[in-house]
Amino acid sequence: RAVPVRRGWGLWQMTPSWAAPTLTPIHRAGYCAFYGECGRNPEVNISLVPAKVPCLSNTPARVATASVLNLLRTVCPELVRGDGETTLVCCSLSQLIALRLSVALSGTVLSRCPACARNFANLYCNNICSPDQSLFTNVTRIVNRTTVLGKPQLAVVEYQCFYGQDFADASFASCRGVRLPATGGYAIDTMCGRYGAKLCTTQRWLDFQGDKNNGLAPLQIDFQLVPNGTQPGDAVVPLHGQAWRCDQALSAEEQPCSCQDCAESCPPVIAPSDPPPPFRLGNADGALVLCGLLFGLLALIFITALLCRCRRSKGDPTPQPVPARAASCSARLSDASHYVLARAFHRWGTLVAGHPVAVLAVAAVLAGGLSAGLVTLRLTTDPVELWSAPGSRARQEKAFYDQHFGPFFRTNQVIVTAPGRPSSRYESVVLGAKNFSGVMSEEVLRAVLELQEQLAATTAWAPVAGREVTLSDVCYAPLNPAEPGLGDCCVNSVTQYFQNNSTRLAMTATQTDGKETGTVDWHDHLIYCVNSPLSFKDITALELSCMAEYGGPVFPYIAFGGYPGEHRYTEAEALIVTYSLNNFPPDDPRHEWVLSWERRFLEVVGDFQRTHGPNLSVAFMAERSLEDEINRTTGEDIPIFAISYLVVFAYIALALGEYTTWRRVLVESKVTLALGGIAVVLGAVFASMGFLALLGLPSSLVILEVVPFLVLAVGADNIFIFVQEYQQSQREPGETREQHIGRVLAQVAPSMLLCSLSEVICFLLGALSSMPAVRTFALTAAVAIAFDFLLQMSGFVALVALDARRQEAARFDLCCCCGMGKGGPAGPGARLLRPLLRRYYTPLLLHRLARPVVGDGHRGALADGGWVPPQDSYMLQYFAALNQYLAVGVPTYFVTTGGYNFSSPNGTNGICSSAGCAADSLTHTIQYATRFPNVSYLAIPATSWVDDFLDWLNPTSRCCRIHQFGNLTGKFCPSTSNDLSCLGGRCLNTTRRPTVEEFERFLPWFLHDRPTLQCAKGGLGAYDTALSMDANGTILGECRVGWGVWDTLGCPADPPLFLPPAPPSPAASRFMAYQRPLRTSQEYTAALRAARALAEEITATLRRVPGTHPDFRVFPYTVTYVYYEQYLTVVAEGVITLALCLVPTFCVSFLLLGMDLRSSAATLVTIAMILVDTVGAMALWDIPYNAVALINLVAAVGISVEFVSHVTCAFAHSTQPGRVARAAEATVNMGSKVVAGVAMTNLPGIVVLAFAKAQLIQIFFFRLNLIITLVGLAHGLIFLPVLLSYVGKTPWGWCLVPSVPSQGG
User: Fold this and answer.
1) Beta-sheet pairing, 152-164 with 220-226
2) Which letter does DSSP use for residue 1060 in this model?
3) Nearest-CA neighbor of 1051 among 1033, 1063, 1064, 1067?
4) Of the given ranges (257-261, 648-652, 869-873, 904-908), which has the lowest mean pLDDT?
5) For 1146, how many CA atoms within 13 A lie in the half-sphere containing its CB?
6) Helix or strand holding residue 930 (H, E)
C-alpha cells in the first residue's frame, strides 16, 4: 500500500515546501533518507535495468566498509574522505553496485567529455551515497513490503531532491553539447525525453532522469531547483556540490572536453565569407549592362567609320580607277594550287561518270564491309562511363571506394502525402497539445503499414537464377548481415516507431499525469519518439520502444518531409518510406536478384498508388527506375526519330528535282537520286561506326541520335550544291555528259573539300576532350564526315551520272524501264528560292542603309550568362516530391587512404573529437564546417568510429571486457553477459589511449559488437563496414613499414624486391557526414567543390602527424560526385574544345581561300558568333549547359561551317568587280543551296522531335538543334554577306585563274 505524504508544509517564497516529517523527519548533515535495497518497484512494469528501490531509513550515515570503500573510489571518488578520515555513506554495497551499472550506462555516451561524465555521476552519487543525503532529500511516497523471511519493510518509490539552481545548471551546461559520434546528434537527445536537444533545459533534463517510466529510473524522483540564496525551509539545504565546466580538466593528467562536445573549448572560428553576390550595377545585371555598353561602343565606332567613309565619298564623287596590282607570290601559289585541285576533281569526276556501275560496286563493298563491324558494337549506357573520364579524380575515388567498401547501397523510396486532408489538434495528457497534419492520421499510417507488409511478403522471380527472391535476400541488414530475416532489413518509415506492428499502432492505455488522467495512444508515442528516437522505452503508459524493428533508430528527418520547422515533425506534409538494398556488381548473380525484387517493388507500389489515388498522393522510385525510364522513353521515341528522318528524306527527294512541265514530272523527279544520296550518307555513318567498333571504341545512344543528324546536314548540303549546280550548268558545245559532270564537280568540290576538311580536323581536335561521350562523339563524327566526303566523291557522283543518263533518255524516275520518248525539256526548270533571293532578298539585305543595321544588330546578340524524366513518367512526380519535401541531403563520406597510423596516440588524436584530441582533427574540422552549411553544404557532422571505439574501451563502461578464466580465457565478453569470468576483466584499467597492440586486438571486437542497452557503443551496423582491413583483419589504415602502394590512392609505389607479396588490398576508412538538401546542379557542384576543399585541408593537417606518409590522402565521396564533377570543368572544357574546333576552320579556310586573311577571319568570326548566340539562346530557353549540350555545340561548329564556308568560298570565287556585288552573287548562288541543303533539311526533322516524350530529346535535340539551325541560317545568310561586303578582299586571285578545260581528260 502506497503511503502518500501531505504537501504544502510552509512556504518557500512562491514555492511550497515539501518537508515531510513523517517520512524524512530529520534533515541533518550525516543523516540518510534511505539505505539498502527493498526489492523491485511494484509500480514499474517494464524496465530496461533492474528497478530495485531503497528502504526508508532516516538514520545516521554508515561507515563505509572496505569493499564499499574500494568500489566508492571507482564510482564516486568525490565522496571518499582523505587519509585518516572516516568515510561515511548512505548506500550499501548492493546499491553501489547498481549505481556502478547506471554510471556505466551513462558513461558509455558521456565519457568522451570527462567533466560531463563526472558531473552526471556526481548527481547520482550524491543522491544515493552522500552521507548528507537527508539535507537535500525528502521521501514523499513509500510502499509496504515483506521479505521472504517475513520481515516488514518500507520501500521508497518516490522522493524529492533539492538542488541549487547554479549547481544544476552548471552540470547541465557541461553535458548539453556532448555528441553521439554514431549519429552526428547530441547525447542529450537520449536524456531529455520528448524535448530532444533543442528544447531541453536543466529542469526537463532532470525530470526525465527521475521519470520512472523512462525505462531506466527505478523510482520516481521529483527534482526541485532552488534559486541561489533561497532556503526551502524545514531544515532542507539544497545540494551545492562542485560542477566542473566542460572546458575544465578534472586533474593535471586529464584533458578538458573537446570543442565538438564543448563550445567553450573551441578556439575562435572565423566564419567563412558567403559566396559573392551576383554582379549588379544598381538594380540591373552587371554583366548585361557591361555587354550593353560594349555593344554601344562597337556600334559607335562602326557608325563613325561609315560616316567618315561617306564623307570621303561625297568629297570626291568621281570614282578613281583602281590601279592594277601584280599578284603576290602567295596569291600566285594559291591560284596554282586551286588550278591543280580543280583539274584533279575534273579528271576524277569524268572518270567516275564514265564508269558509274563499277564505282558504285566498289563503294558499296567498302561501306558494307566496314558496316559489318557493327556486329561488334558495344553501347555504353552507364552514365558514369559516358560522362566521367576513367582517369578523372571522381572515377578514381569511386573505384577506390567501391573496392574497399563495396558499391553504394541501392535506395527504393515511397513518398506519401495527403493533399486536401484537414489537420487536427491532439491534446496529450503527458506531452501537451500538438498539431497533426492531414497525412499524420491513423488511416494513412495504416495504409503505409499495409504497403510495407505487402512488400515484406512479396516475392519476385529471377529467371536466370531460377528462384524466388524475397526482401531478406537483397536487403541491407546492418545488425545481422550474415543471415538476415525480414525483421532485420533496414526500412526507415514512421511505422517503424511501432516496429511495423499494427497491434502496437492500435494500443491505448490509461495515463495519469499529476491530477490529470486520460488515454494515451499512437499520438503520444509518436510525439515522444520523434523527439527521442534513440529511446528503448517511451514515458507513456504504452511503454513502447522507439527503435525500429531491425534494431536501429529512425531519425525523424529521414522519415518525415515538409515539416515547417525543427521538432515540428507531427506537422509534416509527407511520410517517407525508404528501403535500403545491397548493391552488387553486374557480374554477381545476386545483381539479378535485386533487379527482380525492385521490379516487383515498382509493381506493388504502383498498385498501391492506383488503389489509394483518390485520397493519397504517392510518389515512388527504385534504384533501377532511372535506367528503366531511359530505356522506355528511348524505345518509345524511336518512332519519333524514324518519322523525323523520313520527313527529311521526303523533303530531299522532292526538293532535288527541277521541274519544267507537268508531263515531265516523272522524268525530272529525283527521288531515286535522293534516296541514293541518303543511302550514301547513312552508309558513311554505318561505316564509321562499324570501323570504330572494329577498333574497340564503344558508342552510345547520344551518338546514335546526334551523328546521323550532323552527317545528314553536311551530306545533304553537298548533295544540293552538286545537283543544283549541275542542273543550272549548261553543257558546253562538244562536251560529253561525263565531262560536264567532271567540270561541275571541279567547280563545287573545292568548297565541299574546304567544309569537310575543316569539319574533320575540327572534330579530331574535339576528340581531345577528357569527357568520354564528347570524345567518342567527336571521333565518330570526324570519321563519318570523312567517309561521307569520300563516298560522295565516288558513289554519289556515279549516281548523278546514272541519273543524268536516265533523264536524257526520258526514263521515269523509280521505274527506269518506262519512259516518254526523247522529247527534250521545254526550258529551264521552275525555281522559287533562287529568284526570290536574287530579286528581293539580296538587294534589300545589301542596301546601303540596311547593311549598318544588320552589322550592329548581330553585334548586339550576346549570351546571357541532367536527365529530366518525360511528362508521363512516375519519376517526374517523385523528383517534384523529393525537391519539395526532402529535409536532409545524401550521405557524404570522407575517405582516408593508406599511409596513416590510426593506432598511434598521435594518429588517434588526429582523427577523434573527444577529450584530448587535436583541435584540428578530422572530425573537429568537419564539425566546424557544419556550422556554416551555406558554405560547406554539410548539415550533420561526421560519424567517427575512432571516437566510439575509444568510448567503447572506456573502463567505466562494461563494453570491452575479457574472460578471465575458463574455456574462453582471453576472449571477448559481450556487455550482455553476466558470466563470472567477466568480472574485473576490463580491456583497459584506466582511461587512456590504447597501445598499438591493444588497438589492433580490440578493434575487431568493437566492429562486431552489437549495440545494446548495456553498451550502446558497439560498432556492428554503424562501423563494421567503415574500415577496410588487410587479409589478417588486424591492420588499419596504415601501410606497414617498407610496403608500397597497391593502387593510385594508397601508399607509395614500388615495394622493395626482398619483401613478400603485399596484402590483397590497402587499408582504408570512411567517416560519414550528411549534406544539406541540394536542389540544383549548381548546388551539387558547389557542394562537391566545398567538400574537396575541406578534404584537402584535412589532408594537409593529417600529413603533419608523425608517421604519416606524404602520399596519404583524404577525399570526399558520395554517389553524385561522379556525375557532377563534369560541371567543375565543363565551362573550361567547352571553351577549350570549341576553340580547338575553330582553329582548323580558320587554318583550312586561310589555305584554301588563297591565303585570304579577311575572308578567313570573317568565317571564324561568324562561326564564333553563332556559338555565342546559341549559348545565349540556351539561357533564354532554359537549356542547361552540360556535357550533352557541349556535344551539340561541337556539332554546331560543323553545321556552322556548312552555313558559312560555302558562302565565303563563293564570295572568293566571284568575278564581280566590288565587294557588295560579290557578296550579292555569293548569296544568290550559294545561299539558295545552303537554305535548301542545310536549313530546310534540318528543320522538318527537328520540328518532329518536339513530339518526343523524353525531356532529354525535347531539350537537347529539339530546342538546341532548332536554335543552332535558325541562328546558323541567320548568320550565314544575313550577317556574313554584310560582313563580307565591308571587309571582304577585292577580286584578284581565283578570278584570274583560267577555267578548267572542258575537253580532254
Assistant:
1) parallel
2) P
3) 1067
4) 869-873
5) 15
6) helix 922-930
Question: φ and ψ at 61, to 5 degrees?
Answer: -65, 150
Place of cell 508531263: 663
Measured between its terminal Cα atoms, the distance across the chain in Å is 127
CATH at 777 = 1.20.1640.10
- Evaluate whether residue 969 is within a structural domain: no
With contact defined as beta carbons under 8 Å apart, do 441 and 424 qualify?
Answer: yes
Tell me, yes or no, whether 1232 lies in a domain: yes
Residue 1094 has pLDDT above 90, yes or no: yes
**3-class SS of residue 939:** strand
Of the candidates 670, 658, 662, 660, the one whose C-alpha atom is nearest the C-alpha of residue 824 is 660
Give the pLDDT mean for 1209-1219: 79
DSSP annotation of 624 reads T
- Rounded Cα distance, 434 and 430, in Å: 11
Res. 93: pLDDT tops 70: yes
DSSP code at position 59: S
Pair 82, 198 in one domain? yes
Examine the domain organization and report whether 1107 and 1143 are in the same domain: no
Of 789, 817, 845, the residue that ends a domain is 817
Instruction: Confirm if 1273 and 1239 have CB atoms less than 8 A apart.
Output: yes
Give yes or no: residues 787 and 841 share one domain: no
Amino acid residing at 330: S
Q: Are strands 11-12 and 1027-1028 parallel, antiparallel or unpaired?
A: unpaired
Looking at the structure, do residues 353 and 469 belong to the same domain, yes or no? no
DSSP letter at 237 equals: -
pLDDT higher than 60, residue 456: yes
Alpha helices in 1181-1218 (DSSP H): 1187-1213
* Closest to 532 measured CA to CA, from 187, 50, 1016: 187
For residues 613 and 674, state if they share a domain.
no
Reference 1152, options 758, 791, 714; nearest CA is 758
> Do 1208 and 1090 share a structural domain?
no
Output the CA angle 339-344-346, nearest 5 degrees: 95
Distance of CA 275 to the CA centre of its chain: 21
Total domains present in the chain: 5
Buried b / exposed e along 132-145 (16+ C-beta atoms within 10 A): bbbbbbbbbbbbeb
Evaluate whether 1141 touches 763 at the Cβ level (below 8 Å). yes
DSSP calls for 1222-1248: HHHHHHHHHHHHHIIIIIHHHHHHHHH
**Domain annotation covers residue 313:** no
| Contact assessment for residue 1020 and residue 1031, using Cβ atoms and an 8 Å cutoff | no
Domain assignment of residue 1172, given as a range = 831-860+1127-1296
CA distance 1195 to 774: 10
C-alpha pair distances (Å), 214 with each of 190, 220, 495: 10, 10, 21
The pLDDT assigned to 1304 comes to 39
DSSP state of 577: E
pLDDT digits (tens, 9 = 90+) for 619-629: 999 999 888 88
Rounded CA-CA distance 206/220 in Å is 11
Report yes or no: 981 and 965 within 8 Å, Cβ to Cβ. Answer: yes
Q: pTM for this structure?
A: 0.80
**pLDDT category, 238, cuts 50, 70, 90?**
very high
Cα–Cα distance measured from residue 474 to residue 453, given in angstroms and rounded to the nearest whole number: 16
Phi and psi torsions of 1247, nearest 5°: -60, -35
For the record, the C-alpha cell of 796 comes out as: 554519289
Domain end (from 1069, 1100, 1125): 1125
Q: Do 147 and 233 have their domain in common?
A: yes
Assess whether 667 and 614 both reside in one domain: no
Q: How far apart are CA 491 and CA 497, in angstroms?
A: 11
In a domain, 883, yes or no: no
Provide the 8-state DSSP code for 1150. Answer: H
CB 900 within 8 A of CB 1112: yes
